[in-house]
Design a protein that fits this description.
This protein is α/β, with parallel strands linked by helices. The chain has a domain of 158 residues: START domain (Alpha-D-Glucose-1,6-Bisphosphate, Chain A, domain 4), CATH 3.30.530.20. 33% of the residues lie in helices and 21% in strands. The strands form 5 sheets. Strands 3-2-1-4-5-6-11 form a 7-stranded parallel sheet, with helices on both faces. A 6-stranded antiparallel sheet has the order 14-19-18-17-16-15, with helices on one face. Strand 18 and strand 19 form a beta hairpin. Helix 7 packs across helix 8. It is globular. The chain starts with a strand and ends in a 9-residue tail after the last helix.
């Protein structure tokens, strides 16, 4: 079966694509710029990438005729210019006209819940797109979702920013609006489950989790799960414009997206009952579990056995695979690159790091940090390393744990097991033959985590700069460590 995936660089499509490929489908991805899509990481002949701009009708000629199912995952809510409602209408019409010329049997459209007479501009546009796609020579299956809970989703990242940055919130009254959040895992199950199911053809379904909550309840429950105490006072005087600026300045969202989200958050988004979850045998995930899952990274194909030692955190008991994918949202990063003359020798230096060798620069600062960690009940620098020359997944490395040690990929990824107000990763990688990249990533927990990063920023600047310079400094190919 050949599937057309639109919005292929977007949040939902990027989660959906690996599942489609894993299930053996042939997938054609539509992107506006091929350079933004990393096709190499999928390593399959069942994936094809085509350039299509749905606002430009002539570009849709690139869509093949022999597709069986198409996903419509296009929206323009966060656009900085133009009328996004009009843009979505043009895109939908161009999509419909082109697909009516193909052999497609089913189009699956992910829309928004719209069960009230008064709709926001965003929800009105989604409803209009559904009307445009209906009544075609292909069957339309519409799934309507509200707040999607998953790491990287706009809603989730806004909630995270608000909770972790603000111990006390004076918030607009729309925080008392009710909604029915759904876990990203359930959304993907629905999107996959309706493929080729004729009983879902030309029907619309609201999809949501088992909990109906106010936005205020969602924030407070998020805080409880993260171990943070938060207080929220709602006031009636905050206008939509002020609410939009409040989101814009406190969170990482853009102003256009904040404005449209505020417009939508004033309206209840609660599902009309239906039997789709039962039909597809989908177990709905509650909100609290959705939050916990959002802080786990995707499961990997290989999971190490769960062993412990007396001087470790609970990392191994949770499974190393949960930490292998380094997060990007809500994180601070220190990224440094150097061109190296002898990459093999540099890789050898990386493989010797820590333990008796030390960290190549400012070792006394590393020792002080380890001592402080011990005073706080952490592992400190006492563990050293298992071998002076070899590293493998699961090894302890001073107060780090080795997550990835691949000489073939020329990559070493470490996860911090010291006491921290957050989570930290340190990665070394040699790309393009001779470019060494050193990346320190810190995902803070609350205000204390952010304060920790900024207080140590001057020291990090010195240590990380000195470390990469020392690692890259190899005078000859046979230099010994």
């Amino acid at each position: 079966m050949k599937i057309l995936l639109t919005g292929a660089t977007g949040y939902i499509a990027q989660r959906l694509l690996p599942i489609l490929l894993e299930k053996g489908y042939e997938v054609v991805c539509c992107v506006r710029d091929k350079d933004r899509f990393n096709v190499k990481k999928y390593q399959t002949e069942k994936l094809k990438v085509i350039e299509v701009d749905f606002l430009k009708e002539e570009s849709l000629k690139n869509i093949p005729n022999d597709i069986d199912v198409a996903y419509y995952l296009i929206h323009s809510m966060s656009t900085h210019s133009g009328d996004f409602g009009k843009m979505e209408e043009i895109s939908a019409k161009n999509f419909k006209n082109r697909l009516e010329q193909t052999k497609v049997k089913q189009v699956i459209y992910l829309s928004g819940i719209s069960n009230t007479d008064e709709l926001s501009k965003h929800l009105s546009s989604r409803k209009n797109v559904e009307a445009i796609l209906s009544g075609s020579n292909f069957a339309l299956t519409t799934l309507r979702a509200g707040i999607i809970v998953g790491s990287g989703s706009a809603s989730f990242e806004i909630i995270r920013d608000l909770v972790e940055k603000l111990p006390f919130m004076i918030a607009p009254r729309w925080l008392n609006t009710k909604c029915q959040p759904i876990a990203i895992r359930n959304v993907l199950e629905f999107l996959i489950g309706v493929i080729g199911r004729e009983e879902t053809y030309n029907k619309s379904y609201d999809i949501g989790g088992p909990d109906i909550l106010t936005y205020k309840e969602m924030l407070l429950r998020f805080a409880k799960i993260r171990g943070l105490k938060r207080r929220i006072l709602t006031v009636p005087v905050m206008t939509p414009r002020l609410s939009s600026y409040w989101l814009y300045f406190v969170t990482a969202t853009s102003y256009p997206l904040a404005k449209n989200l505020v417009d939508s958050m004033k309206i209840e988004v609660i599902c009309k009952p239906n039997n789709l979850a039962k039909l597809l045998d989908i177990k709905l995930i509650d909100y609290d579990t959705s939050i916990k899952l959002a802080f786990d990274t995707p499961e990997q194909n290989q999971i190490l056995s769960s062993w412990k030692d007396a001087q470790t955190s609970n990392l191994l008991s949770q499974g190393i695979s949960k930490f292998i994918e380094v997060p990007t949202n809500g994180c601070f990063k220190d990224i440094r690159t150097r061109k190296v003359e002898y990459p093999d020798s540099v890789l050898k230096k990386i493989w010797h790091i820590g333990g008796k060798t030390g960290w190549y620069y400012g070792n006394w600062l590393w020792e002080i940090r380890g001592f402080i960690d011990q005073l706080m009940g952490g592992v400190g620098m006492r563990r050293g390393r298992r071998s002076d020359t070899e590293l493998q997944k699961g090894d302890a490395l001073d107060f780090w744990r080795v997550l990835v040690a691949s000489k073939e990929e020329k990559r070493l990824l470490l996860y911090a097991e010291m006491k921290l107000p957050g989570e930290a990763w340190l990665e070394f990688k040699i790309d393009n033959g001779n470019v060494l990249t050193q990346t320190a990533t810190f995902r803070p927990l609350g205000l204390l985590g952010r304060l920790y990063w900024y207080v140590l920023l001057p020291f990090h600047s010195i240590i990380f700069k000195g470390m990469i310079n020392k690692i890259a400094d190899v005078n000859n190919r046979n230099q010994k460590i």
